[in-house]
Design a protein that fits this description.
heterodimer; A: 202 residues; mainly alpha; Four Helix Bundle (Hemerythrin (Met), subunit A); 6 helices; elongated; B: 229 residues; Immunoglobulin-like; 2 domains; two-stranded antiparallel ribbon; 2% strand
């Protein structure tokens, strides 16, 4: 395993903090804390509207568990690719970083493709944002999550191209770590959504 | 998992990451399998099992992949406060709407006092004798509630109801109208119920939407309409 090099969260000389922690890390964690509340409001909304739609299509008629399980697995495994990307750059392996970043973005895109396919199918079955309470709360919740995944894929690809141009070295591993935190957060939100929206549709 | 010395930079090894991924994969597989096990659902065990498993997955990704287990505790506080508030919001809202004890049922009326509208309606109906025996049709009070909650007031005005749109007819003196549905039906309780059940079937293209009401709600609304002075 890599020998631990300069601590990535250590404060450099020009950066002064009262916590001893890197500002960007603190910012990211604060942001993720606020994101928890953002998704909580959407999940709470979904829970409160559950089973209250007056007209169909209802969740039972539309939700396809085997299909969504596959996209769930691809998002889950993308988190593994992401930590491997971070591990690679922390030991100075830029090529490894690029490979794993690409793998992460690929699995993320696979998930997004699945969501586009799912949404299209739902609309063809007559479920739109304004059809009923299920349509409104489902599309808003999963749509915002999909938006987060999209932003994550763009972020990962921009890191990939930066790495390709040699702009990301071992000392820049924090940039990868921040993208990773965001990416894992998007993954854990999906863990909650998959359980609450899909598996608990009873 | 290899033993970790507490301290910031002892992140898991790559093989550790892979083991975590295998655990996440297995937990998700168990979740999906549990979804198809009918006895779990019947015994009301599915929800607790799924919530427990996803909480474990959540904590695993947070702890190992996001390094919360190994990083400064301050990060944990920042994230944890957001997460705690998030959980509180979800639980409070579900409690407030009785989602926890009466899932999927219509919202309970929290206020048991007569509403201002009911009081005003009562004042206006003084000296008015309904044409029909309203009690045999339905519940006027529930009908009044539906009239407001189902959005009738978006298009219709009615005595004793504040606001109300002007797209559809004003429902004042309802029982005195000779016909309903734009002249297509006679003004009888049976016809009103038929109309409310499916306006589009009676008058295709009418601005009156299908309200997806059940039989009881239709009877209550009909009773309310005939109670209007």
């Amino acid at each position: 395993m890599a020998v631990s090099t300069a601590a990535p969260h250590a404060v450099t000389e020009e950066e002064r903090t009262s916590t001893g922690l890197n500002h960007r890390m603190v910012l990211m964690w604060t942001f993720l804390g606020s994101e928890c509340m953002f998704f909580a409001s959407l999940i709470a909304n979904f829970q409160v509207q559950r089973g209250r739609s007056l007209n169909g299509p209802y969740p039972d008629e539309l939700i396809n568990i085997p299909f969504t399980s596959v996209s769930t697995f691809s998002l889950l495994m993308s988190s593994l690719m992401m930590v491997l990307a971070l591990a690679a750059i922390q030991r100075g392996d830029v090529k490894g970083l690029r490979i794993w970043l690409l793998a992460t973005a690929f699995l993320g895109s696979l998930f997004l493709g699945g969501q586009v396919y799912e949404f299209t199918g739902f609309v063809q079955h007559g479920l739109k944002l304004s059809t009923n309470l299920f349509g409104a709360s489902f599309f808003v919740l999963t749509g915002f999550h999909g938006t987060h995944v999209t932003i994550g894929v763009i972020w990962l690809m921009s890191l990939y191209f930066a790495a390709k141009r040699g702009r990301i070295q071992q000392r820049d591993s924090l940039s990868v770590e921040l993208a990773g935190l965001y990416w894992h957060f998007v993954d854990i939100v999906w863990i909650a959504i998959f359980t609450i929206v899909y598996l608990l549709k009873v | 998992m290899a033993a970790h010395v507490s301290g910031e930079e002892h992140h898991p090894s790559e093989s550790g990451y892979i083991r975590v991924a295998i655990a996440l994969f297995l937990f998700t597989t168990i979740e999906v399998i549990a979804f198809y096990v009918e006895p779990l659902r019947l015994l009301d065990l599915l929800a607790p099992i799924l919530l427990l498993l996803s909480a474990i997955k959540f904590a695993t990704v947070g702890g190992w992949y996001m390094h919360l287990k190994f990083d400064s505790k301050i990060f944990m506080v920042f994230f944890g406060v957001g997460l705690a508030l998030a959980a509180t919001v979800i639980l409070l809202l579900m409690t407030l709407t009785s989602e926890l004890d009466r899932p999927g049922k219509p919202f309970q009326t929290i206020n048991t006092q007569p509403t201002l509208q009911a009081v005003q309606a009562e004042e206006q109906t003084k000296g008015f004798t309904p044409k029909y025996d309203l009690k045999s049709i339905g519940n006027v009070e529930l009908g009044r509630e539906f009239f407001v909650s189902r959005g009738c007031t978006g298009c219709h005005q009615a005595p004793g109801i504040q606001g109300g749109g002007q797209i559809g007819p004003n429902q004042a003196h309802f029982s005195e109208r000779p016909t309903i549905a734009g002249g297509l039906l006679p003004n009888t309780p049976e016809a009103v119920e038929k109309w409310l059940k499916n306006p589009q079937a009676i008058k295709p293209g009418t601005l009156m939407p299908d309200l997806s009401l059940n039989e009881d709600q239709i009877r209550d609304l009909t009773a309310f309409l005939y109670s209007l002075p």
